Structures are given as structure tokens and as C-alpha cells.
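Hey, can you fold this one?
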Amino acid sequence: MSSIGNLGGGSAGSVTGQLDVQWIVEQIIYAKQQPIRDLETYEIFYGAKKEAFQELNTRVSALESSLYTMNTSGFDTKSASLSSEDYFSASASSTATAGDYSIVVDQLAAAQSETSANLNITDPDDQDLTDGKVTIRNYDNTSTLGEVDFTGSTMSLNGLKDAINSLGLDITATVVNFGTADNQDYRIQLTSENTGVENGFVIQESGGGTLPGFDTKIAAANAQIYVNVDPTTDPNDYITRSTNTIDDVISGVTLNLKDADDTRTTILTIASDSTNFKENVQDFVTKYNEVMDYLNAQFTYDESKEAAGVLSGEAAALKVKQDLLSYATGRVDGITDRSEYNSFAVIGLEINQSGQLEINDTRLDNAIENDLEGVKRVLRDEGTGSHNEVKFVGSGDATVAGTYDVHVDTAAEQAIAEGLANIAATLGQNETLTINYAGQTETVDLTSGMTNSQVVGAINTKMDDESLSVFARVNSGGNLEIVTDGYGTSETITVSSDVLSGGGGTGIGTADITDTGIDVAGTIGNNAATGNGQVLTGTTGNTKGLMISVTTTSIQGGGGDDKGTIYFTRGVAEGLRDRMYELSFPYSGLLAKNIESFENKLDNIADKIKDINRHLESEQEILIMQFTKANEALAQMSYLKSTLGGNFG
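Sure. Predicted structure:
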């Protein structure tokens, strides 16, 4: 607050003397400033309430964040331990199956490396290579990957290196000095950027001049491992992969191979690991108690201050506490069987007399070990399908807990562009396919002599390289199909060839073949639902917002197929999270509205103080002017008195 005047000292003077104008005006203005001092008291009061609500909002937001973390991660954590770390490392995701696995690493995957012969080249920039062509072909010598032709001319080692690298292959060319500082011996090396037999290559040289002449120094090789197999009794039952990182052999487990020894067995143990989950639970309990402690302090009378906290009379603060206690002592909506876990307390999260949560470690550990699915239902919204083709995806605010029948009228389909004729066992000519998907157009060059499996491999490699969610396959009828990974009407694919269908080709043909996927259609709990790909979402009634994944591939009955039931429950922790989110939501949340209310009150007080100060500033000027004139009049009267006294003295 800016004040106009402060209490001053001095005397009002006498009739014959001058008035102390400054002192008189200050006393008048100070008296008129009392409304400002009253407003400042409210300003302190409302400011304290605003700050207290801001602190409460911060704590509620932190609680909501901890609940989100707990409910979205850490439930199904698995650990991977090894009897020896000499041969590979391992990690496990939540989908891994607990158990012991006996693993032998028989061979590591290797990237092919070729080194040129010793040509006594002492300067890699000299034009030592003459009249020739270097051709690089794929691993089984069925197609050309690229070539460098210097027929009738010369080329340096560095020039050959740059020319090969410019081909854009997954092969790196380098020039290495195999000699000494005094006796240089430069050679060129070609090394595959990827391990595995199919990432190997063949080098062909032609021409009558001086050519590099390559020798294989490291052969391309696949990794070979035995899983729960004794290599001494079943030596051919190994599993092979092109890389040393293997994530598709044991479901949910990634192996990173480091060394090989077919005589050494390593035991991999996959086990449930609740450490991360319990840390998330502890963080939730901590954040919950921080909110409760703060509210308890606000509602407790402090004898030394002879007052409770500034939020003690605020309905919004009381509502937050009531909500915390309501959810912490509530039951899971949708669970009626008393033998099931249905509240915080039964899984070990117990409320004490102060309304705080305490963890009963023994009870929580038993719940996690014996019924993890039950623990999930206590904490978050969960759905379980009785049919193996129906999975719970999510729910909406309007979804009501319960058990609902699932009926499918139409199965979701991928977009499939199918060839017009059977693909040839071996291509009789070169052919180029054009594939258009998701606004991206790519071409795949196929060469004469390719088998149909090589055609499929070439297409899939190109799609992977270009990050297109599309793959090729040969169907049971012998036709080539180009298929989208995704399902539904949002998936459309167009394919064409530069070769007519039939006649020893892929069978695609020169005309565009276009197909669009189909969305799943059906009902949930006899309520209407809409399909998007394989996801069916309820749109009316108790199942509004309930989302399920339906992986049905075909409908058997003319009126559709029943796919069991979906059992949906609402977790206590998820309900608490939703409520904390509502309370702390910016602008529209209950706490935000209270903060805004006090901000508005503080703004109004500031405006009133400004108005009063502005008025007093004007009044001060008038008072000064009036008392100054009075002083002048008194001065004249004093002069007149002294003059008259002299004349009559």
C-alpha cells in the first residue's frame, strides 16, 4: 500500500502565529486512511488463504501423479537372473513367463568382412586399379546389389571406397594401412553393417586390369542357441537368429549374446519382481499422507496461536479430506464376492486414526504373490474377457461396473491386395512392384530367378527399411498378398506391377489392386457399439465408453457370434486419481476455483485501495491549499495587529 501521509509532530500554533499545515493535513489524511488499514487486514487474510489453497493444490496434484504412475506401471515386473554372465545378458518384460530356462550359446552372429589382397599400394590416392568392374551381389548370389565400373579407366583405393559407400548399401568400405610407417601397405575392406547369413554378400570382379582381389576374413554367420535342449544328445535342435540380440525366442525375454561355448550351460531364471510396484505404492502412500497431514494441520486448533489453520472454515478443504477418506475406506465397484480383494485394507493399505495410510508389508506381499489380478482390481479399472479373442482396452467416465455379454456381427479385417494369379515358383523375368500405403509410395525391384520365398523376403525387407506397416505373404491358394499390419477402414493399400499377371511373375498385374480393411462390428451388453479396427467401443447405456479388443478373424453364424462376457470393475485407486484430477484441474477444478476466488478478492481490495488513495491525494492537495490560505490570513492578521499596536502604543 502506498500511503499519502504519515503521523507528524509539531503544534497547531496560536491565533497570532502560523498554522503547522503539514502536521494538520497529515492528521486528517491519516484518519481518512482507516478504510485502507481495514482492507489491508483482509488482504493479509485472503492472501494467506490463497497461498494455503495453492499449497493444497500442489499436494493434491502430486498425489494424482503418483496414483497415475502406480496404476500404469510396475504391476507385472519380472526379473531375469543368470547362473553365469559369461555368455549373455538377459532382461525380462512383464509378459515373460516365470520359470527356469537352460541355455547354451553355440555360436555368435557375425558380420561378413572382406579384405583385398596385397597389391603393394603405398598411396591410396594413386590410380593403381585399372580396367575393371567390382560387382556386389546378395548373400546367395541371386541378385545384384550394386557395382562400380571403371572399365577402360583407372581408380584409386580411396576412389573405390567412396564409390562403394555411395551405393547406399548396408556395407561399409574402408581403407586400412596394413604396413608400417616406413613400408606402407594399403588395402580396402568391405564389412557388412549387419550380422547374419542373409546380410552377407558376394564380390565379383571382372576385367583384364589390376583388381583388388578379395578374401573373406570374417564369414557371415547366424547366432545359434539351444533352449532347454542338451546339444550333446540333440545337436541339430538349435535355434538360429541373424543377430546377437534375440527377443523372439522366449516370450518377453531379450538375450544379448556375448560369447559362445557349446559345452557350457547357463540357467536363466525369470521371476516376479514386486520391487518397482511396491516403490510406487510407497510413493502413493507418502503423497496421500502429505495431503492428509496438511489438512489435519489446517483443521487442528493451535493453542499458542489461539486459532486453527487458515483453511479450517473452508468447505473446499473439508471436501478434499472427505474424498480422501471416502476412497481410502471404499470398496471396489463391481466386486460382490467378499472372498475377493475389494478394498485398500485387504491388500495391506490400512487407515489409522489420523486418516493416514499405513502399509502392512506382510499383507501386501501376500496379496501380490497370491492374487496379483485381485490387487490390480483394487487399484485400477480392470476388465477381463471370458473368451480368448476378447481383451479389455479401457473405459470411460460413464462406464458402469458389471458383467456384459459380447456379440460380434462382423470381424475386423486388414487391407489385403491379392495377386490376380499364382506367384511363380521362380520369377521368369525382372519385375518391379509399386506399393502405396498411408500416403507413401515405394517400389520393390525383383530379379529373374528369385524364388517366391525370396520375393516375399525382398518385399518385407523393403517395407521394414521404409518403416511401412505392411508385409507380404503367399496365401494358401498360391497367390501373393500385400497386407497391412493394421485393421479397419482406416487401412487402405494399393499395389501394381510393371509385368502382366501370370507368365512366371508375381501375379499382381499392371492394373492397380486396391483394398480397404473392415472395422469390427457388434454389441456390448446388448448396447450399441462402434468399431475402429479391432476395437469395439460401447456408445450407450452402462457400457458407454467401454473399449474391448476383438481379435476374431471370421464369423461362423449368420446372425453373428457370441464371444463370452467382459467383466469390468472400477478400482479404488483409479477412482481416487480421477477425483484428485478433478479437484486440481486448472481453471475448472474445485481448488483452482477457490484460488481464483481469493485472487479476485485480492484484486478488488487492491483496486479499492488505489481508489481511496487517489481520492485522498486530491483531498490532500485541497487541504494543503486551504490551510495555506488560512496561514496567509493569520499572517495578515498578525501583521495588522502588530501595526495597530504600534500606532496606539
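The chain is about 30% helix and 30% strand. Let me know if you want another pass with a different chain boundary.
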